[in-house]
Design brief:
The structure holds two protein chains of two kinds.
Chain A: H1 2-22, H2 39-42, H3 50-68, H4 73-91, H5 106-109, H6 111-134, H7 140-169
Helix pairs in contact in A: 1-3, 3-4, 4-6, 6-7
Chain B: H1 2-29, H2 45-58, H3 63-82, H4 87-96, E1 103-113, E2 121-124, E3 137-139, E4 144-151, E5 156-160, E6 168-172, E7 178-182, E8 190-194, E9 207-210, E10 222-231, E11 238-244, E12 253-259, H5 262-278
Antiparallel strand pairs in B: 1-2, 1-12, 2-5, 3-4, 3-12, 4-5, 6-7, 6-9, 7-8, 8-11, 9-10, 10-11
Chain lengths: ~170, ~280
């Protein structure tokens, strides 16, 4: 239990650092703008208290906002994602229910499950974030383009990170 | 009363969502460009020291190009010194003329910068303790950079010219017509120049400089050159695309401009407004 908490704190710090030092300065044009830090929220245990997840999401978003000088944008996106999480988990639940030991990882639930869960969550997060930032529907299609391409990059990075973390464990 | 408690018990998740989302959107929509809380921006000590460490590592990779830029700036300054015919006379004039001492420049390291967001900011390694205040202009050796919007003791946040809310009063170096420079997102090398009337003659390659109307920058700081001009038939203004003088992707160090007469100027204006209202 305590090691789980420690693991999550470590994950939070490591991915926050990767986000603000590497990904923020990765200048690949405005369409490729991945937000890998959401992996911290995605990988919280499936059975964790949903209200706690939402509060953690809010704090995580606010921390990233502080580094990006985008006060409230990431927080709003993260809170929305956390609100949708129970519904998404229910939608993609394997036959019956999740095992008590099930974790939102490739190892535990397989690549197709991870892709659909991470894909939906990341898309919702990026949708709120980028449209809030553009704050107009005049550039609707270019903003949607940013949402889709950046989501794909984020999902790719999340899956890659999971593979790397899995390797490190065995 | 029990009804209310029962309602919150049943819907606490939705209530929490609405509360947190409301708080986030409050942060988003409150007018925080000049009134950012000291803690929640990249000037706070946590974000500042992370960026400082990061910059300490990565700045070594740009040393060669930074040196080149410094050498070029030195050459330019030497040349402009040489073009003043009799220095002693001018120095005397400069000392008696307070305009010559109006602006003070403070050197700063850019420890964090972005160009690919919709709204871009820079973080500088100097703050209140070094004399930086909100509302000061920031320039690079090659041109305009932005304006300081948040300061802590040791760091400051700058709204880049590459920001939706940024508007710069600029003018044509030749002819002196005034316009406004804005950035609408996308390519960090280009911006738009608006409100130049069709009656002016405008050519591709013409230089645009700061107008000096605001107290942010001295008059005549480079903004960019005209890349393309399009007359808009239904309006009285040109549509002008501007190639920015500053390369925002490679900003190593910048100067923060403090206008020593800003207080005097604003006080004078406020008094004039008051006197006018009193009538």
């Amino acid at each position: 239990m305590i090691t789980d908490v420690a693991k999550n704190i470590a994950r939070f710090l490591i991915f926050l650092l990767i986000q603000v030092s590497i990904l923020k300065h990765l200048d690949l044009g405005r369409f490729i703008n991945p937000f890998l830090y959401v992996i911290f929220i995605l990988m919280l245990p499936i059975r964790s208290n949903q209200a706690l997840v939402m509060v953690l999401a809010f704090c995580t978003g606010l921390t990233v906002d502080m580094f990006y000088n985008t006060m409230g944008y990431n927080a709003a996106a993260c809170v929305f994602m956390a609100y949708c999480r129970p519904l998404i988990l229910r939608t993609y639940a394997p036959k019956g229910e999740y095992d008590t030991s099930a974790k939102p990882t490739i190892q535990s639930l397989g690549l197709p499950w991870v892709l659909s869960y991470v894909g939906t969550m990341v898309f919702l997060h990026h949708l709120v974030l980028f449209f809030l930032e553009a704050f107009s529907l005049s550039s609707f299609f270019s903003t949607l383009g940013i949402v889709i391409i950046s989501s794909a990059c984020t999902v790719g990075l999340v899956v890659l990170s999971q593979f790397i973390m899995q390797r490190g464990r065995t | 009363m029990y009804g209310i408690i029962a309602f919150f018990r049943k819907h606490y998740f939705a209530v929490l969502f609405v509360a947190l989302e409301f708080l986030s959107l409050y942060f988003v929509f409150k007018d925080n460009y000049y009134h950012q809380a000291g803690f929640f921006n990249s000037a706070n000590s946590v974000a500042g020291s992370v960026y400082k460490t990061y910059n300490g590592i990565t700045s070594y990779f740009n040393l060669a190009s930074e040196n080149q830029k410094l050498a070029e700036e030195n050459t330019m300054l030497h040349n402009s010194l040489g073009s003043i015919p009799d220095t002693s006379k001018h120095l005397k004039v400069a000392h008696t003329n307070p305009y010559g001492d109006q602006f003070n420049f403070i050197t700063a390291d850019v420890i964090d910068n972005s160009t690919n967001q919709i709204n871009n900011y820079l973080t500088l390694n100097i703050g209140k303790n070094q004399g930086v205040a909100e509302g000061m202009g920031v320039i690079s050796p090659s041109g305009i950079v932005g304006v300081v919007i948040g300061v802590s003791d040791h760091y400051s946040v700058v709204m880049s010219l590459l920001h939706k809310s940024y508007q710069l009063s600029a003018m044509l170096k030749k002819g002196g017509a005034f316009g406004t420079v804005i950035w609408e997102g996308g390519d960090s090398r280009f911006a738009l120049l608006k409100q130049i009337p069709m009656s002016e003659t405008v050519k591709v390659g013409d230089t645009i400089v700061s107008s000096g109307y605001s107290t942010l920058y001295p008059k005549g700081i480079n903004v960019g050159t005209i890349e393309s001009v399009e007359p808009v038939p239904t309006q009285y203004f040109y549509k002008i695309k501007l190639r920015l003088a500053t390369n925002f992707k490679k900003l190593g160090y910048v100067y923060v401009v403090s206008d020593l007469m800003k207080k005097e100027k604003t006080e004078l204006q406020n008094n004039a407004y008051k006197a006018n209202e009193g009538k």
